[in-house]
Amino acid sequence: WSAHSEGDDGMDDQTRIAVCERCAATWIGDYSNHPQTRTITMRVLSLFSGGGLGDYGLELAGMEIVGQVEIDDYCQKILKLRWPNVPKWKDIREVRGSEVLEKCGAVDLISGGFPCQDISVAGKGIGITGECSGLWKEMHRIICEVRPRYVLVENVAALLGRGLGVVLGDLAES
Question: Facing residues of 37 across strands?
Answer without folding.
Answer: 20
